[in-house]
Amino acid sequence: MNFTAESVWTDCLSFIKDNIKPQAYKTWFEPIKPVKLSGEALTIQVPSKFFYEWLEEHYIKLLRVALVRQLGNEAKLIYDVKMENNYSSNRPQIVKIPSSNRDPLKPQRLTVPLESGKRELRNPFIIPGLQKVKIESQLNANYSFANFIEGDSNRLARSAGMAVANKPGGTSFNPLLIYGGVGLGKTHLSHSIGVDIKDKYPDKTVLYISSEKFTQQFIDSVKSNTRNDFIHFYQMIDVLIIDDVQFLSGKAGTQDVFFHIFNHLHQNGKQVILTSDKAPVDMQDIEQRLLSRFKWGLSAELQAPDYETRIAILQNKLYRDGVEMPEDIVEYIAKNIKSNVRELEGVLISMIAQASFNRKEFSIDLAKQIVDKFVKNTKKEVSIDYIQKEVSKYFDMDVATLQSKTRKRHIVQARQLAMYFAKRLTKTSLASIGNQIGQRDHATVLHACKTVDNLTETDKQFRKYVDDLTKKLTF
Ligand code: ADP
Ligand code: MG
């Protein structure tokens, strides 16, 4: 009989095809190429190490049965893993040989150096079985570099983004981590990079995804037992953009899977772009090994834009919307909304809406009303820690004193004021306030609030404390 690698493999495939679901066959077997048959050993080529691990984990029994049918009990299977870039050039090629006299599930592991000629770049999208996979990038074309106004506050992040877009995976900015406060353009900038890459390299697979969605997909994949498909999917991407990675904090399972995906992409020269509301050093409940990866590339901060940049952002938005607005009004808005570009745009959008619904002219008065609303509504909830610090500072004592068990009148008063403001300015329960302010119970907090109310009405000096502290705590 004249067996060839092709003929043996074709027969194996027809057997395998009958025994698994069509989708699984398409995904995991069509991409395989038979390369060599020597004696009873068939060598197959798989697109990645991941692929090989997956076959070993899920299909080794089936493969073995198929092979034994063709080649008899001495059948051996050798994997030829195509390494995808030079990263692995010093690593030995892993070859596994499951054979009849060994437990097929615990195949012997042999390492054989990779023949240099065999190493070549390989895009998973030219694997026959996966050829038709097309991934929607989930990018918003409006979030372009052109619409992302440059200023001192974002210059580094913006130029790093452009460098990455010119050469995805080919700069030392990998991963590129963009961090900064709410509404400062992290999402916009990360989209810009993706949009520009799609423009310059239409064949590259770009994917934008929020951490929350990523987490949800991962949880779903675990539930439906498709975790490997999930991983495989993400490992096929050329440019992966994950927004708001701070949401991964505390989610060990998702961090773990992301760690593996990240490593795979990075090793294969793929680009990873991350955004976060914090610098890596300040991220909490993120595994150390993941944090250290975040620091491999470049962390670029987006700061609050300065006045000129705020004006430019407003003018650009007006221009794009085809709206004209008197300069003094634009300046008024830019002067009053300082720390959040989303709010800056929000005021503009409200202005335009108000003016057109009510057929009003743009006026400073209208701008004032809207700015006031924005400033009020977006005031951050203060923390109990912050309240304790401010109250202690005001009374010239430290927080430990404020929390202590002493009954000295001025300390008791300070503590009661802290409790009163915690109740007034946060949504925390009485029990939790008591707990945080010197381990008191909820009745004590309630009593404190009543006392402060009473004293405010009867004691002029005390009312001044309340007024001063109100100003301090609410700006
Ligand atoms: P973040 O993700 O940091 O919370 P976003 O990217 O969602 O912020 O930005 C909020 C809004 O501000 C978006 O509409 C975005 O287009 C706009 N924006 C932020 N920075 C700029 C900028 N430099 N130029 C133009 N628009 C900006
Ligand atoms: Mg965002």
TrEMBL record:
GO BP annotation list: DNA replication initiation; regulation of DNA replication
Region (Domain I, interacts with DnaA modulators): 1-86
SMART domains reported for this sequence: AAA, Bac_DnaA_C
InterPro entries in the record: AAA+_ATPase, Chromosome_initiator_DnaA, Chromosome_initiator_DnaA-like, Chromosome_initiator_DnaA_CS, DnaA_C, DnaA_dom, DnaA_N_dom, DnaA_N_sf
Cellular component terms per the entry's GO annotation: cytoplasm; plasma membrane
Domain AAA+ ATPase: 172-308
Domain Chromosomal replication initiator DnaA C-terminal, chain residue ranges per copy: 383-452
Main location: cytoplasm
Domain IV, binds dsDNA as annotated region, ranges: 356-475
One matching Pfam family: Bac_DnaA_C
Keywords, ordered alphabetically: ATP-binding, Cytoplasm, DNA replication, DNA-binding, Lipid-binding, Nucleotide-binding
GO molecular function, one term: lipid binding
Location(s) in or outside the cell: Cytoplasm
Residues bound to ATP: 183, 185-187
Annotated function: Plays an essential role in the initiation and regulation of chromosomal replication. ATP-DnaA binds to the origin of replication (oriC) to initiate formation of the DNA replication initiation complex once per cell cycle. Binds the DnaA box (a 9 base pair repeat at the origin) and separates the double-stranded (ds)DNA. Forms a right-handed helical filament on oriC DNA; dsDNA binds to the exterior of the filament while single-stranded (ss)DNA is stabiized in the filament's interior.
HAMAP family the record matches: DnaA_bact
Domains: entry comment: Domain I is involved in oligomerization and binding regulators, domain II is flexibile and of varying length in different bacteria, domain III forms the AAA+ region, while domain IV binds dsDNA.
Subunit note: Oligomerizes as a right-handed, spiral filament on DNA at oriC.
NCBIfam families membership: DnaA
Official protein name in the record: Chromosomal replication initiator protein DnaA
Species: Polaribacter filamentus
Gene name per UniProt: dnaA
